[in-house]
Amino acid sequence: MAITREGRICSFCGEPGGPGTDLRLLGGLGAQVCATCVDDFHAILHDEEAVAAASGPFPWERMDDAEVLATLPRILASAEQNISFAHEWVDLLRSRSISWAEIGRALGVSRQAAWERFSRRAADKGATA
């Protein structure tokens, strides 16, 4: 099972990525980051004034209502991307014959709870081992 960058967005700026873009998969936890965001964060981390400014109020505290509303769909797209990534990882585990009981233990839930949450998309629908 291949986990690809196709159809992903940058988890920081919301820009779409995929083949032929600068989007990169980091750490295996679903976070995606584009080269522009990496460069921007690198510049901030090496500039004491920029670090101080970034350590100030949260961005949403400076936004008006229209900006907060405009940001909400991007936040949900990032969250949905991470949920989709979790399903891909469960599919990967199932393709390696990892049992629902083992997946449940890793998630701190029962085998049944893991199956109910992830089996609807799993390639082995109906498998309950």
TrEMBL record:
Protein name: ATP-dependent Clp protease ATP-binding subunit ClpX zinc ribbon domain-containing protein
ATP-dependent Clp protease ATP-binding subunit ClpX zinc ribbon domain location: 7-48
Domain of life: Bacteria
InterPro entries: Znf_CppX_C4
